[in-house]
Amino acid sequence: MSFSRPSKPHHTIQRTDPESGYAGGMLMRLLMPVALAVVILAPCRPALGQGTEQLAVQVREAETAFAATMASRDHDAFGGFVADEAVFFGRSGPLRGRAAVLEGWRPLFEGPAAPFSWRPEVVEVLASGTLALSSGSVWDPAGKQIGTFNSIWRLDTDGRWRVIFDKGCNP
Question: Which domains are present in the chain?
C-alpha cells in the first residue's frame, strides 16, 4: 500500500484579506476595536496628564474671567463661557441652551453698572479631569452679600472650560 501526499492541502491559512487583498487584514480587524476604544475613552483621562490641582486653577481662572464679563458689561464674552447645552436656573425657571441663557441674561448687561458680582471660593475637579464645581459668594454693587452660586464646568473638546449648570441661592 502506498500513500501519496495530496498536491493541495485541504485546509489553508489565508494570509490576506480577501476583500482588500491587504496582508494583515485579520490583524487590522483585531486592532480596530482597540483603536476605537482609545478614541472613545481618551476624553475620560485627565486633560493632557494634568493633576486635579492644576485643573482647579484653570477652572478658578475661567470662573474669575466669567465674572469679569459682567463687570466689564461684555455680553458677547459672557456667552463664550456658556456651553451649548447649558442649564441656568433662575427665578422664572431653568434657561436651557446657550441661546436661552444669553437672552435671559441680556437685561443684566444693560446699563453702565453691573447689578451684582461674584468670585469663586471653592473649586473641585473630578479625578477624570472633565467636570468641575465652582462655588462662592454673590455681592450687590455696595458689597453686601446677596447670595451664593454653584456652577458645574465641563472641559470641552476645544480645551476650554464652559459652564453646563449654574444655580444661584439666597445667602
Answer: 47-169 (3.10.450.50)
